[in-house]
Write a structure and sequence with these properties.
Blueprint: E1 15-18, H1 20-26, H2 34-44, E2 51-56, H3 69-75, E3 83-88, H4 91-97, E4 104-110, H5 113-120, H6 124-141, E5 145-150, H7 163-175, E6 180-185, H8 192-205, E7 210-215, H9 222-231, E8 236-239, H10 259-268, H11 277-291, H12 299-302, H13 313-323
Parallel strand pairs: 1-2, 1-8, 2-3, 3-4, 4-5, 5-6, 6-7, 7-8
Helix pairs in contact: 2-3, 2-11, 8-9, 10-11
The site of zinc ion has 8 residues, from loops.
C-alpha cells in the first residue's frame, strides 16, 4: 500500500477538480442564469482548486441546463494556475468548444453499452470512433485530452462491468495520446476494495498516464472510496461542491462526493491540496441559493473538525457544583 504521508516527508500533493458546474448542474431542473454560472466559476477559481470543469458542450436538447456553454466559456476569468476543462461527447462538441479553447477537453463515453446508448445515443464502438476523431482535432489545436469512462465500477442497468473492459477502453485512448483517464463511478456502485484494485491495475498498466477518480456518493461510500484510491496512489479527484450532481441518463444517480468534505478529509490526512477550505465553504454556502435547495455536504453544516462551539453557561455551573462539596475538606478525604 502506498503511503499518504510519512513523518518528516513532504505531504502528498493531491489535485482537487470541481465538477459542480457540469456534473452538478446537469441534474438540476430550474435553469441557472448564465451570469450566475460565470460569477460562480470566478469565485471557485479563487479557492485553490487545481481544475474546474466549467460546462459541457453536449446537445442542448440532451442537457438544456448547459446550453449556454459557449457564452460561459467566453466570459469566465482564467485565473493562472487553475485548469479549465469542459466535457465533450462528440465532434460537434469539440468544434463548438474550440472557439474559446479550454485548457483540456474531457471526453466522455461509458464502459457499459446500455448506459452509452442511454446517455450518448450511440454504441460504445461509435463513441470510440467519435472520440478518436475529437482527439485528432484537439491535437491539431494543441489542446490536451482526458477521457472520462462512465460506469467503470458498475452499470445501474447491466450490473458488473468487467475491469478488463474498463482497462481496454483506457488503453485505446492512452495509446492514441490521451494524457489521462478518469474512472467514473456514475451511480455510486463502487466499493473501496474494488476502487483500490482497479486504480492499482490502471497504474501498473499505464504508469505514465494521469489517473483521476470520479465517485458519486449514491450509497454513502464516496469518501471511503476516495480514501481507498488515495492509499492506492491516486492523486487526482473529481468532486462536486455541496455534493451536487448526477447523470440524468443513469437511473438512480445522485450527487458526487462533496468537494469541501473531501478537501477537509484530505487536509486531516496530511495531504496538500492547495485549497483554501474557508473560501470553498463560502462557495458551498452560496451554491444552495443558486440551485434553490439544500445540499448534502456535511462540513458546511457541522463545521470543520476543530471549529469549536462556545461552552454553555451550564458547564461552568456544573463545574462549580462539582468543586464546591470538596472545598474545606481535609486533604486525604478529597
Ligand atoms: N453540441 C450541440 N449540438 C449538438 C451536439 C453538440 N455537441 N451534438 C449534436 N448536436 C445537435 C446536432 O447538430 C443535431 O441538431 P439538429 O437537430 O438541429 O440538426 C442534433 O443535436 C442531433 O444530432 P445527433 O448527432 O443525431 O445527436 P443525438 O441526438 O444522437 O445525440 C449526443 C447525441 C451525444 C449529442 C447527445 O446524446 C448528448 O449530448 N448527450 C450528452 C449527455 C450528457 O451530457 N450526459 C451527462 C454527462 S455524462
Ligand atoms: Zn459524475
Amino acid at each position: 500500500m502506498n503511503r499518504v504521508s510519512t513523518g518528516g516527508a513532504a505531504p502528498q500533493r493531491v489535485f482537487l477538480q470541481d465538477v459542480a458546474m457540469r456534473d452538478g448542474l446537469q441534474a438540476e431542473t430550474a435553469f441557472v442564469a448564465t451570469d450566475d454560472k460565470v460569477a460562480f466559476v470566478d469565485a471557485l477559481s479563487r479557492t485553490g482548486l487545481a481544475k474546474i470543469e466549467v460546462t459541457s458542450f453536449t446537445s442542448p436538447k440532451a442537457i438544456p441546463m448547459l446550453a449556454d456553454a459557449d457564452e460561459v466559456m467566453r466570459r469566465i476569468e482564467r485565473v493562472p494556475g487553475v485548469e479549465y476543462t469542459v466535457l465533450v461527447p462528440n465532434v460537434r462538441g469539440v468544434e463548438r468548444a474550440l472557439v474559446t479553447p479550454p485548457d483540456e477537453f474531457n471526453l466522455v463515453m461509458s464502459c457499459s453499452e446500455t448506459h452509452n446508448l442511454a446517455n450518448l445515443r450511440m454504441t460504445r464502438a461509435a463513441s470510440v470512433l467519435q472520440l478518436l476523431e475529437v482527439m485528432r482535432l484537439s491535437a491539431q489545436a494543441g489542446v490536451p485530452v482526458n477521457v472520462s469512462l462512465s460506469c467503470s465500477f458498475g452499470c445501474p442497468m447491466e450490473g458488473e462491468v468487467p475491469a478488463e473492459v474498463v482497462l481496454d477502453h483506457a488503453a485505446t485512448f492512452v495509446e492514441a495520446g490521451a494524457r489521462g483517464v478518469t474512472l467514473c463511478d456514475t451511480t455510486g456502485m463502487a466499493y473501496p476494495s474494488q476502487v483500490a484494485a482497479l486504480c492499482d491495475a490502471y497504474r501498473r498498466r499505464f504508469p505514465r498516464a494521469m489517473l483521476t477518480l470520479h465517485v458519486h456518493n449514491t450509497r454513502g461510500m464516496g469518501l471511503a472510496n476516495a480514501l481507498a484510491a488515495l492509499h492506492a496512489g491516486v492523486d487526482r479527484f473529481d468532486a462536486s461542491l455541496g455534493g451536487l450532481g448526477g447523470c440524468p441518463y443513469a437511473p438512480g444517480a445522485t450527487g458526487n462526493v462533496c468537494t469541501e468534505d473531501l478537501a477537509h478529509m484530505l487536509a486531516l490526512e496530511g495531504c496538500r491540496t492547495g485549497v483554501d477550505l474557508s473560501a470553498l465553504l463560502d462557495c458551498a454556502r452560496r451554491l444552495g441559493g443558486l440551485v434553490g435547495h439544500a445540499l448534502p455536504g456535511q462540513v458546511v453544516k457541522a463545521g470543520r473538525r476543530l471549529d469549536l462551539h462556545p461552552v454553555p453557561a451550564s458547564v461552568a455551573e456544573a463545574r462549580d457544583r462539582a468543586v464546591a462539596p470538596l472545598a474545606g475538606r481535609p486533604e486525604q478525604a478529597r
